[in-house]
């Protein structure tokens, strides 16, 4: 595997670390005003390097509807029913198109991404459309990974990376839905 592929994947996941996502607008049930409710931290990925494993986490700011009392989660870069970020799931699905689950887990480990083979198998069989891919150094990589890594490389020209930037790069995999 080309070292640049590893750098692209690592850069893509690191740009998401501690990014904040906010529930905005009005309640989708009743149209009432939303106000801040609480903050949750959710693991996006587990990456490793020579110093060990490091969680990549995102911060989700939930909102409360003042009219109907529903609690709303912000848009987030996760597919429904998954526990890791959508770009990692995209990577699992892309690699699983040509490799078996155990080998995908080994390839991910070489990239510095920790996903066990049973999770790879589960994620590669999700009922979602296959992610768009692009060939990078002879290997198909999800477009979401490439788009995220480009956010890491802009040198802060456009200001800090926001949750909306991450969602745009991930092609908005979640749906705005009530939490409770």
Description:
By secondary structure, the chain is of the alpha+beta class. The chain has one domain (3-170). The chain is built from six helices and six strands, in the order αββββαααββαα. The chain has helices at 3-14, 86-96, 101-110, 117-124, 143-152, 163-170; strands spanning 19-22, 34-49, 52-65, 71-72, 133-136, 139-142. The strands form two sheets. Strands 1, 2, 3 and 4 form a four-stranded mixed sheet that branches. β3 (52-65) and β4 (71-72) form a beta hairpin. The longest helix is centred in the first third of the chain and has 12 residues, at 3-14. The N and C termini lie far apart (44 Å).
Short description:
By secondary structure, the chain is of the alpha+beta class.
Main traits of this protein?
180 residues, 4-stranded mixed β-sheet, two-stranded antiparallel sheet, alpha+beta, disordered C terminus
Oligomer: single chain
List how many beta strands DSSP finds: 6
Fraction of residues in H or I helices: 25-40%
SSE class: alpha+beta
The portion of residues forming beta strands comes to 15-25%
Give start-end ranges of low-pLDDT stretches: 175-180
Compute the number of structural domains: 1
Task: Please count the helical segments.
Answer: 6
Mean pLDDT across residues: 90
């Amino acid at each position: 595997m080309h070292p640049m592929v590893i750098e692209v994947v690592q850069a893509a996941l690191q740009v998401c670390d501690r990014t904040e996502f906010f529930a905005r607008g009005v309640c989708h049930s009743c149209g009432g005003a939303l106000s801040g409710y609480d903050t949750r931290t959710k693991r996006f990925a587990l990456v490793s390097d020579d110093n060990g494993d490091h969680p990549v986490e995102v911060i989700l700011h939930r909102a409360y509807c003042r009219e109907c009392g529903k609690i709303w989660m912000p848009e987030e870069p996760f597919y429904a029913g998954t526990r890791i970020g959508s770009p990692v799931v995209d990577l699992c699905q892309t690699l699983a198109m040509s490799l078996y689950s155990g080998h995908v887990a080994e390839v991910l480990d070489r990239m510095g991404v920790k996903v066990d083979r049973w999770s790879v198998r589960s994620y590669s069989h999700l009922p979602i459309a296959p992610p768009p891919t692009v060939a990078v150094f002879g290997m198909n990589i999800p477009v979401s990974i490439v788009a995220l890594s480009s956010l890491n490389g802009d040198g802060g020209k456009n200001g800090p990376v926001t949750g909306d930037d991450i969602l745009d790069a991930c092609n908005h995999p979640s749906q705005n839905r009530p939490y409770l």
